[in-house]
Amino acid sequence: MAAKEIYLDNNATTRPLPQVCDAMMRVLGEDFGNASSTHSSGERARKYLTEARDSVAALIGGDSSNLIFTGSGTEANNLVLMSCLVRKNKPSHIVISSVEHSSILKTCDHLLEKGDDVLLLG
To answer: Which family does it belong to (predicted)?
Structure first.
């Protein structure tokens, strides 16, 4: 008899709720489209994207126009950290820990090379 697997890697990927899977399958299988396109499939995709953005904004008490959806945690981490390079009036000061995701550590190494102040704790 095979032992039942106990999944403990939720930090990397978490099993989505059944309702999420159902909604994703509907969109991926029936209502897929590029939300930037002007045809009907694109308009449906844009509607779903707008609804998702509004739902997240309401959940966190924010403004939906300030939300950016990314494809991964690495992309999100890089977006935030690389924005430090955009405002080069003065160097950024960033404090991180030694147990950060590798995308944080690698990007902060790059920022350090560019003259930003990065303090690594631990």
So the answer is: Belongs to the class-V pyridoxal-phosphate-dependent aminotransferase family. NifS/IscS subfamily.
pLDDT tens digit string along 65-116? 999 999 999 999 999 888 877 766 677 788 999 999 999 999 999 888 988 8
Rounded to the nearest 5 degrees, what angle is found at the Cα of 50, between the Cα atoms of 25 and 80?
95
11 assigned to some structural domain: no
Give bridge partners of residue 118 from the DSSP assignment.
94
- Torsion over CA: 101, 73, 87, 95 (sign): negative
Q: Are 60 and 36 in the same domain?
A: yes
- Are 117 and 77 in a shared domain? yes
- Distances from the Cα of 94 to the Cαs of 38, 70, 77, in angstroms? 41, 22, 13
